[in-house]
Amino acid sequence: MKLHDVKIGQRFRKRDKIPSMWEVIAIGQARDPIPHVRLARIGDPFDTKVVSLVTLADSNYYRLETDTPGGLQGGGED
Fold first, then answer.
1. 13, 14, 24, 33: least surrounded by Cβ within 10 Å?
2. In whole angstroms, how far apart are CA 37 and each of 9, 17, 40, 49, 67?
């Protein structure tokens, strides 16, 4: 996955014992040595985190759920 492949609004499922859904709300600068994205948890948009693109692309940690940017709705999709 390349930085230009990530779009604001895409949703990723965090692969944990208790999975959660996260939406891309910001994309780091391409000039950064390690590109990062900011994610907000669906259902609680104030719960945010920054992860590297390497981690986001690793299927052991995240799985792309929707490739269509949909906007943060806050619906309980955990």
1. 33
2. 11, 23, 10, 8, 15
